[in-house]
């Protein structure tokens, strides 16, 4: 019997707050790179469409409207970027008069599911409850009517590509929107909204968002016990000294305890505020890290892929008796049936005649020294801030004291990082 091998992609994106056109181009670039590597699933950072650091702009309805316009542009893109790949993007969504921080799943020009965030970050530098509410209906799924701009894009895409067969059957929520009733019509498009799992033809896939990795009652535990093999996390996590150690420990610990694939995506760079998001997109399988992106850098887009064996996850889980006992008592999650295979036919991206896939081997985590973090974090923040405010450079007064000397060293590190990129 053929093994269930899948190529999965995550990414670091250098998004700008409120730069909808630029953010769209970076999202599209990440999808292109993921597809070129044969990936069938791509996850991006938290709120990647408008940018995480929009602050009180989240209270303006235009921010949500423009986010939907970006989604419509992605669906109707001439390159048909969502064809043959499950695309998971982050954006704000207003549902029944309440704004939520959401993941939106796309495939073949359709919106499959909108998954709102269950736990918000509201300590330290985070103020998410100022803008968003948590989804309090665990396992609850409702219908959400897409705005006309997205409904028109979906209808146009379906007219151009022909109707796609809906699959999965069963009594759960159906991900397929209705077909247009006439060539020029765009009928209302209702999609599932809530805490649900995508049941693909060969796997179960679900999402977390940022804080849900850190919270005590983390959703990934219940999802793993319910049989979900692939769990993703689109994050907007800023740099804090040694914070990467904590992230990697939680990711590896989650998959070591309950098995599974965990894909972590993050923003990287300064998106207009005083925080620096430090990337480090990664993939873990059954407690072992198999792929890791860079923590600091000036690249706008970095895509990280890994080939994973989903049968190894089942084998791992079946070998732990306590996990079996707990999993046998867990209620089935709400499912959205999707007629799509995550795993190809054994070749790269399932293309006939291509080289056979092999699972990506485990690697050792790359963790910088504290001194390196102190140098590279502020240095990369300075460069992003400089180019995004349109200034020509920094004025650096030197008094000879410790403060100005430290600033001088950080500016020097910024110059070294920029020169190194130019030399590539």
Automatic annotation (TrEMBL):
* CDD domains referenced in this protein's UniProt entry, alphabetically: GAT_Gln-NAD-synth
Q: Which GO terms describe its cellular component?
A: cytoplasm
Q: Which organism is this protein's natural source?
A: Gonium pectorale (Green alga)
Family annotation (Pfam families): CN_hydrolase
Q: Name one GO biological process term.
A: NAD+ biosynthetic process
* Name assigned to this protein: Glutamine-dependent NAD(+) synthetase
Give the transmembrane region(s): none
Q: Which keywords has UniProt assigned to this entry?
A: ATP-binding, Ligase, NAD, Nucleotide-binding
């Amino acid at each position: 019997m053929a093994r269930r091998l899948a190529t999965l992609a995550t990414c670091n994106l250098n998004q700008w707050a409120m730069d909808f056109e630029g953010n769209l181009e970076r999202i599209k670039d990440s999808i292109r790179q993921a597809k070129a590597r044969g990936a069938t699933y791509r996850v991006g950072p938290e709120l990647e469409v408008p940018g995480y650091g929009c602050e009180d702009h989240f209270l303006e309805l235009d921010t949500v409207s423009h986010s939907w316009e970006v989604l419509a542009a992605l669906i109707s893109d001439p390159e048909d970027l969502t064809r043959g790949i499950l695309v998971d993007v982050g954006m704000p969504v207003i549902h029944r008069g309440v704004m939520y921080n959401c993941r939106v799943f796309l495939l073949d020009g359709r919106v499959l599911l909108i998954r709102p965030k269950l736990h918000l970050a509201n300590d330290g530098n985070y103020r998410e409850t100022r803008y968003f509410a948590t989804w309090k209906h665990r396992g609850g799924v409702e219908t959400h009517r897409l705005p006309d701009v997205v409904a028109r894009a979906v209808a146009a895409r379906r007219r151009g590509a022909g109707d796609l067969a809906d699959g999965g059957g069963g009594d759960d929520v159906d991900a397929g929107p209705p077909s247009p009733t006439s060539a020029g019509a765009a009928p209302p498009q209702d999609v599932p909204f809530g805490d649900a799992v995508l049941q693909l033809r060969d796997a179960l896939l679900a999402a977390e968002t940022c804080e849900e990795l850190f919270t005590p009652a983390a959703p990934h535990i219940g999802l793993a016990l319910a049989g979900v093999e692939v769990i993703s996390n689109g994050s907007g996590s800023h740099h804090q000294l040694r914070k990467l150690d904590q992230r990697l420990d939680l990711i590896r610990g989650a998959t070591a305890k309950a098995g599974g694939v965990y894909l972590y995506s993050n923003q990287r760079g300064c998106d207009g505020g005083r925080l620096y998001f430090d990337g480090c997109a990664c993939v873990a399988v059954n407690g072992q890290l198999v792929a890791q992106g860079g923590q600091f850098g000036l690249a706008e887009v970095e895509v990280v892929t890994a080939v994973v064996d989903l049968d190894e996850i089942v084998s791992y889980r079946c070998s732990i008796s306590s996990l079996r006992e707990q999993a046998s008592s867990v209620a089935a999650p709400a499912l959205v049936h999707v007629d799509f295979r995550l795993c190809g036919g054994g070749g790269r991206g399932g293309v006939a005649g291509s080289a056979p896939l092999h699972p990506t081997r485990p690697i050792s985590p790359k963790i910088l020294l504290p001194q390196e973090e102190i140098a590279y974090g502020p240095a990369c923040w300075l460069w992003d801030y400089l180019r995004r405010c349109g200034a020509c450079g920094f004025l650096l007064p030197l008094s000879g004291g410790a403060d100005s000397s430290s600033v001088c060293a950080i500016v020097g590190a910024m110059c070294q990082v920029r020169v190194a990129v130019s030399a590539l």
